[in-house]
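pasting input
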Amino acid sequence: MGTSDIAIKGAKGTGAFGRFAHEYMIVLITIGVFVCATIACTIKFGDPSTFLNVQNMVNILRASSVMGIIALGMAFVIISGNIDLSVGAQMVFVGIASFSVINGLEPYIGAYGAIFVGIATAVAMSVALSIMCGFIVTKGIVPSFIITLGLSYIYRSLSIFELQSGGINIKTKVFQNISNSSLGPVPMPVIYFFIVFAFYLYVSRYTVLGRRIYAAGSNAQATRLSGINTDWVKIQAFALLGLTVAIAAIVEGSRMNSMNSSSSGLGYDLNTIAMAVVGGVAMEGGKGNFVNVLFGIIILGVINNILTIMGMDVYLVNAVKGGIIIAAVLLLRSRGKLN
Amino acid sequence: MENALVMRDITKTFGGVPVLKDVDFAVGKGEIHALVGENGAGKSTLMNILGGVVPMDKGEIELFGEKAEFRTPAEAQARGIAFVHQELNVVNDLRVYENLFLGHEIRGALGMLNKAEMIRRTEEVFERMDVAIDPTATVRDLQATYKQVIEIAKSVLFNAKLIIMDEPTTSLTQHEVESVFRIMKNLTVQEGVTIIFISHKLKEVVDFCDSFTVLRNGEVVGTQPTRDGSGALIDQADIARMMVGRDVLNVEVYKQREEGEVVLSVKGLCVGRHVNGISFDLHRGEVLGVTGLLGDGKEELARAIFGDLRHTGGTMELNGKAINPRQPAAARKLGIGLLPSNRKENAIIKDLSVADNMSIVTLPQYRVGPHLMNSRIYGTAEEYRDKLNIKAQSLGNLIGSLSGGNQQKAVLAKWLIAKPDIILLCNPTQGVDVGAKNEIYNIIMELAAQGMGIIVTTGEAAEAVRICDRLLVMYHGDLQGELDRADFSEESIMILSTGGKLN
């Protein structure tokens, strides 16, 4: 009987609520954020409905969908024991290439053909870049933090150089329909997000790759000695992230009808990492639950939304957001100590 | 003899489960007293109560004749109790004296560190302990023994009167163990320090301790001196019997078997400077032992066969076909399995459940299309849980919830499910208690009887003698000798592994 067992047993006898809080801390935090947002809104406007209405809830989901998609891929990379700081720049780099292909091919093969080839280009290129990144990280035995920091500079710089710091517009109007349409009341980006979410949730729980990603992130040496090529597992986790970056590039490009080399995708890296971490993914790898990541994405979405509604000074928004992220992770950690 | 410590009627329950039941424990002043028992017997809990880590429900403690109850480790420390843990809590990048004074640095004027004084006092402590270590050496450059010695030196530096050592020798070789005990003996004789020694290694208890107490299921089975009235040493088997309540050490586990054709043939295998041209054949149904002192190449030999280390020379044939696995994944596909040493670092995937740990090697076989069937994973895990008698409350719990012996069986199970042609077992009973050891030996015998080729690397001669058909003894990377079962003796193994020759 080690001391750690004792700590668990000492802390567990906190009654039904304690056990519930232990299991569903992320749900409680989400409810707390909603309640705080409603109260703040009521105080400011004398009426909670400015925040608490169906249209605003849909807005929150739509505004979170692009980063949310990337956050799902990010969760896999973090669970596998790595991190990727280049997703924002990679999205812009891949987007610019893809949209150039669409613009270039449209006169020859028509809008639909060009869009198809453009999407295929984005997916192939983004997944290839992520696999390359994974190779450098695993074969070079260099921390992914450093490699992806370097890659983010490269992608951003090449994008800015190519467009001379300007943006690229997609000429065909059809392309805009990808994101600027809806299924009933639900905007398409939200649909895309939930499709990716369902797929990644499935991969994490019911596939060999998913199980191996958790294993490799938890104890790479033990997993390797179980006859598993852990380098390849980690590279595949990067590939899963690359896929989400490609989807995000298409959805974002369609929504804005453009991609700007210097201003698009800024802050996406740290925001998506924050979504995963607030959703309970452990930075040391091996731990994370995709349902909780969904809550993490929603929490950050609500925070962004309420700060905008409240008319908070844009220069102050990040300070408040930072404080809330730290508080949320501290609450999750207090639960983690019991594990 | 005067008692340094008396614990009376100590009772402790965790969540309704009694862990200690009216335990009486007394330790004489200046003795080395062993506290032994199987995992879960309550040793650590008893010591954690003494060290102020957990409170007791009932009972009283008398330390050097005075009543005591410690609510925090700091209170226990202030009364002269020091805890030396199993894991080495030394900082490799700091110098020896810096480690000793970590958190208690001596400062001079202006808050600057008074290095000269700290070095002087470190030298003084080493002198009292009669060891020669340079206080200014960086800890990383020291041997494992010395790291352990630094841990002990910390207790001496702060004038500990009672030192609790929790399995301090698990990472040390025979020779190193002896030098640590020599230092401990010096402390008891010259400084009047009392030492409580928690260990699984009964040989050390008999050889080095003055007396011992056995705990079983939270109760004291008995306290005895290690020598009887006439000065004769107690038999290890007697202690083992007290620990598990039945005879275990003398139980015959070895079973005669038919050996089949050659399954693995190794010729002139070299691995860097660790292994120099080793050749041997392994037959189906054979248990081949590889022994030698720590660092003499047995571990590297096994890892090279498994593709975890690249071999730098020689050839290997599996079932008559040349093989050259470049990594463990390739070896697994060829039908080679490996149970690594140091379970915690190399074998346990702590964030996965027992069932997931057991199925990690064979994941693809539980698929239907791309879909992983958890029902199949659990079905197989349950089958092997019953086969190997793995005691687990639930297979869905994290692997860390199992005791050491059951973790080891779960790790073994993950390879057995894969049904390899040969399996390499590195220190298969490391950190496993006496009862579970026999169960693992029985599993090994069973596997051999089914025709698997088995290589066991072990540092314990007694283990090799109990289960192997044939034994390779390595010395400095060379094959120093080969013994058949008929010629086994711990003495001949020791002669060969220390570089001697048999006549």
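fyi Chain A touches chain B at residues 1-3, 5-6, 9-10, 12-13, 206-208, 210-212, 214-215, 217-219, 221-229, 286-287 (CB under 8 Å).
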